[in-house]
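INSTRUCTION: Work out how this chain folds

Token vocabulary: learned, describes local backbone geometry

RECORD BEGINS BELOW THIS LINE
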Amino acid sequence: MSDTPKGGSSLGASPLQIIVKGGTTSSAHDTERAKQKAMTELGRAHQDKQQRAADMGSGMTKEGFVSAHLTSLRMMDSGSPRLVLYYLNRDKSIRQECVAELVMTPDGDSLFTLVCPKCLERGESHGSAQVMVRHSHRKFFLDQRKNGTIVMLTDPFGKPFQVRICGTVTCEETLRCSNVGCTWAVKIADSKVEEV
């Protein structure tokens, strides 16, 4: 004898969303994404205003004397442990190099983030295109044999810079972007990020 309603599910109401490939998103999802985008733009406008004020420095304005400067509340600094991740093309050549910080959380967990290039190409903001890899969720291994090695990279403006890495990272489990409609999935071996 079943205690489920006729034609009903024994699982009850499910908070899970089922995404159909090629399907559409719900209006609630679209509204939430629009709110996130608006808040991001508002935050950027505020930061731009702060930067303009700091660029002016100290001086006299029509409102009176103004002195402005920026301070950083970053928890990470130049001495933080870093990784260099190498995003590979299908032919195993390096398409892009990215710097990631290895973060130790207060609860003893460790994590680093990847950026999904497919989401960036689709116009997603940098913040929503990140894939957080937590050691407690997806086991990764840090090979420290290259700890202290200096890696030379080039910034987007062509200027060289160096990064002291804490080692290389390997994650044998498949890592997937969680954004709706994104199919980006990778594995990482010796800090080489390869699509699967």
Q: What stands out?
A: The chain has two domains: 12-71, 82-195. Residues 82-195 form one domain. Confidence is low (pLDDT under 50) at residues 1-5, 8-12. The CA atoms of residues 18 and 25 lie 10 Å apart.
